[in-house]
Automatic annotation (TrEMBL):
One of its GO terms (molecular function) is lyase activity. Belongs to the D-glutamate cyclase family. Its EC number is 4.2.1.-. NCBIfam families: PRK05463.1. It comes from Lentzea waywayandensis. Pfam families: D-Glu_cyclase. The lineage of its organism: Bacteria, Bacillati, Actinomycetota, Actinomycetes, Pseudonocardiales. Keywords: Lyase. This is Putative hydro-lyase SAMN04488564_105385.
Amino acid sequence: MTTAGQAPGQAQANLIAIPRDWAYDFLLFTHRNPKPCPVLDVLDAGETVSALKRDADVRTHAPQYRVWENGELKAEPENATDYWRDDLVTFLIGCSFTFETALTNAGVPLRHVEQGKNVSMFVTDIQCRPAGRLHGPMVVSMRWIPESLVDIAHKVTALMPSVHGAPVGAGDPRMLGIGDIDEPDFGDAVEHEPGDVPVFWACGVTPQAVLMKSKPPFAITHAPGQMFVTDMPDFAYRVG
């Protein structure tokens, strides 16, 4: 189940919980790479409730989680409580699902929502700026947008930098090192309509690609496209 198209008007977030002795490296990584990793909240070590959703537990509120050991995916539970550790520092990272209501209101169709699918996500050949022990490539989400509406999509999302902001590219996927637009690394392949072009936004699944490259001993994340839905209104992250 994806949270794309769910809870319209509410901000959604990516989640990563990482041991405290790696948390500074990750905080520095987000500071150096704000486009894919805009921080919405950081919890104290062992804390399980965010100010963004005070009646929810970060271990259970996302539809599905991923458990990582030494950069390898070990489990995908619906409830992360049994895997939780008191030394985990949880980061909530902005998610592009947050700007989808604004896109819809501007008349931009969302093909993945129309088709009941998760958004397509791809690992690019763009390397993030390293921080301490953390390094790896940027991940992007892709939406098929009518070519006539690409400028509108750019303007709408540029006003929401805390949830990835403006696209990082449009058109030829090879400019990002993406070989096959029909074979996403995460999420679903989405069918396009005549006149659509692929538009790419920096994606909060980037930390998962970084985990695979950097291999910290342990981490918990959300499953791609299965987000932590907050109580924050999406317009709270609009500027201007």
